[in-house]
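Objective 1b of the project was to move from sequence-level analysis to a structural picture of ligand recognition. The entry below was assembled by the postdoctoral researcher (A.K.) and checked by the PI before modelling. It contains the amino acid sequence of the target and the SMILES of the bound compound, S-adenosylmethionine.
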Amino acid sequence: MTMRLDERLRAIAAFVVEGSRVADIGTDHAQLAIELIRSGRASKVIAADLNAGPLEAARKNISAAGLEDRIDVRLGDGLTVLEAGEVDAVCMAGMGGALMVEILSNDVSRSIGRLILQPMNAVERLRQWLELNGWAIVDEDLAEVGGIVYEIICAERGGRSNAETKRSRSPLLKKLLNARIEKLKRVAASMEKSSTAVQTEKYRRLRAELEELSGGDND
Ligand SMILES: C[S@@+](CC[C@H](N)C(=O)[O-])C[C@H]1O[C@@H](n2cnc3c(N)ncnc32)[C@H](O)[C@@H]1O
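Corresponding predicted holo structure:
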């Protein structure tokens, strides 16, 4: 079976260190897991999901790719499917940032060297949590699929944070920031209909972020 990996999954796979043992948590269709084994980038992959339906899709695709003996498929919640020390890296993609934080709060994460995360939201909150919990953001990247720009974070335990990331040089950064500004403006406009909403901390923070993103020119 041939399956073309989209730019988002390609950017995630690119952060996997050659020869590492990887868990893809929330694997769903297992496209990432399959690519990591097919390309020879990962030496071992565990593909896990909380739900039986997605895991069934994963099994079907893995079997169509003839990789049943190379990819270990597991049903369960987050990192609970892993033994400490079983993998070098964990990928999580297509989930909310808050769910990722919850999943990473499991002790097994202490034995993991590298995280590759593609959160759907709460990206700043996830970055802050990582930095406060012993992870250094060593690189970040952006990828566009169907007009949407996705953020990918690569963090290492005990690594050194890096400000000069692939993200900071990406031609997609402007598009990402414009989309964020438009979203914040819509939320601000909706809050401004209520005299109590504009007194809240949420509104104050929102205006501050808008100002920072648009350099003071946000009306
Ligand atoms: C939107 S899909 C993303 C699939 C794939 N990772 C991707 O990025 O294309 C999210 C998957 O995460 C799974 N999931 C949600 N919560 C989970 C948890 N606590 N542990 C493991 N998997 C979870 C869902 O069942 C679903 O299959």
